[in-house]
Write a structure and sequence with these properties.
The structure is a single chain. With about 290 residues, this protein is an alpha+beta fold. The protein has 3 domains: about 120 residues, no CATH class; about 50 residues, SH3 type barrels; about 80 residues, Alpha-Beta Plaits (2-Layer Sandwich). The protein has 8 helices and 8 strands. A 5-stranded antiparallel β-sheet has the order 4-3-2-1-5. A hairpin with a 4-residue loop joins strand 3 and strand 4. Helix 2 runs antiparallel to helix 3 and helix 7 runs antiparallel to helix 8. The longest helix is centred in the first third of the chain and has 30 residues. InterPro entries: LSM_dom_sf, MscS_archaea/bacteria_type, MscS_beta-dom_sf, MscS_channel_2nd, MscS_channel_C_sf, MscS_channel_TM-2. This is Mechanosensitive ion channel.
Length: about 290
C-alpha cells in the first residue's frame, strides 16, 4: 500500500504533463485560428475564380492573347493554392518555435499521403511535371485514348478536356505519364486539318483536285501562311473502288476546326454536283475494267 502511495505523485505528474500536452495541442484549434483558416480557403477559391474569369474576358477578341492568358491562369491557380496552403500551416504553427514540429508534421503528412492517397499524390506530381515539361498546353487540341478536344485546364489533380460535342472530360494527371497523348497544335493557334473526299475512279480527278484546292484556299477559316497540300491515291473503300483526294490545310484558329471542315466540304459537294463528279459506286469501275 505504501508502495502504491509512493508512486501516486509520479502518476499525477505524468497525468498533468499529458493534460498540458493536450491543452497545447488543443491550442492549435482555437476558434480564431479556425475562422482565419476558413477565411484563407475562401479567399483562395474566390481569387482563383475571379482571376480565371478576368483572364478569360481579357482574352476575348484576341486569339493569340487568349491562349497565353489560359496558360497564365493554369500557373496562377497552382500558385494561389500553394500560397494558401503555406498560410494555413503558418496559421497553426510558428516557423521559428515549431520548426521541429513542422518537420515532423511534414514527414508524417508525406508518409500518410503516400499510403492513403497514393493515386492522388501521383496525380499532383504528374500535374507539376505537365506544367513544367509541357507535352501539351491549355488551348491545345489533344487526342487521349478515345477522347479528343481542347485542353481547358491543367490542374494539380486532373486535366480537363472539352470535346467537340461540348462535353467536359476530366482525366487524372498520372494517366498522361504512362499513356500516349497527341497534340494537334502544340501551343500554336493554328492547326493542320485533313479533309478527305472520295470520287469514282473513272471521274476527272484533275478537275476534282482543282475544286478541292480552290475551296480550301478561299475559305475564310484557312491560314495561308502555311502551305495547302493536295494528295491523291486509289483505294478500295468498302466494296467500291475509289480515288481518295486528301486536302491538308491549316485552320486559322483551332476553335474553327469544324467550321473550316464544314465550309470546305459544303462548297466541294456543290461544285462536284455542278460538274457531274460522282462518288464511288459499289462494284468494279469502268476504268478498272
Amino acid at each position: 500500500m505504501l508502495h502504491l502511495l509512493h508512486h501516486i505523485p509520479l502518476v499525477a505528474q505524468a497525468d498533468a504533463e499529458t493534460v498540458a500536452e493536450l491543452a497545447q495541442k488543443a491550442d492549435l484549434f482555437e476558434f480564431e485560428k479556425i475562422i482565419w483558416a476558413l477565411a484563407i480557403i475562401g479567399a483562395a477559391v474566390v481569387a482563383s475564380r475571379v482571376l480565371q474569369a478576368t483572364l478569360e474576358k481579357m482574352g476575348e477578341g484576341n486569339a493569340k492573347r487568349r491562349l497565353m492568358l489560359k496558360k497564365v491562369a493554369s500557373f496562377s491557380r497552382v500558385a494561389i493554392f500553394a500560397i494558401a496552403l503555406y498560410m494555413l500551416v503558418m496559421t497553426f504553427f510558428d516557423a521559428e518555435e515549431d520548426k521541429t514540429a513542422l518537420l515532423g508534421l511534414g514527414g508524417t503528412l508525406a508518409v500518410t499521403i503516400g499510403f492513403a492517397l497514393k493515386d492522388t499524390a501521383s496525380s499532383v506530381m504528374a500535374g507539376i511535371l505537365i506544367l513544367v515539361d509541357q507535352p501539351f498546353q491549355v488551348g491545345d487540341r489533344v487526342t487521349f485514348g478515345d477522347t479528343y478536344g481542347e485542353v481547358t485546364e491543367i490542374g494539380l489533380r486532373s486535366v480537363r478536356i472539352q470535346t467537340l460535342d461540348d462535353s467536359e472530360v476530366s482525366i487524372p494527371n498520372n494517366k498522361f505519364l504512362t499513356e500516349a497523348v497527341t497534340s494537334g497544335n502544340s501551343g500554336a493557334l493554328d492547326m493542320m486539318i485533313v479533309i478527305k473526299f472520295y470520287i469514282s475512279m473513272d471521274e476527272d480527278f484533275d478537275l476534282a483536285r482543282r475544286i478541292i484546292y480552290e475551296a480550301c484556299v478561299t475559305s475564310k477559316y484557312v491560314y495561308l501562311n502555311k502551305p495547302v497540300t493536295i494528295t491523291m491515291k486509289d483505294d478500295v473503300t468498302g466494296m467500291a473502288f475509289s480515288t481518295i483526294i486528301q486536302c491538308k490545310a491549316y485552320v486559322i484558329d483551332v476553335r474553327y476546326e469544324k467550321a473550316f471542315e464544314t465550309d470546305v466540304t459544303a462548297r466541294v459537294k456543290r461544285a462536284f454536283r455542278e460538274h457531274g463528279i460522282e462518288y464511288p459506286r459499289v462494284g468494279i469501275s469502268t476504268a478498272a475494267a
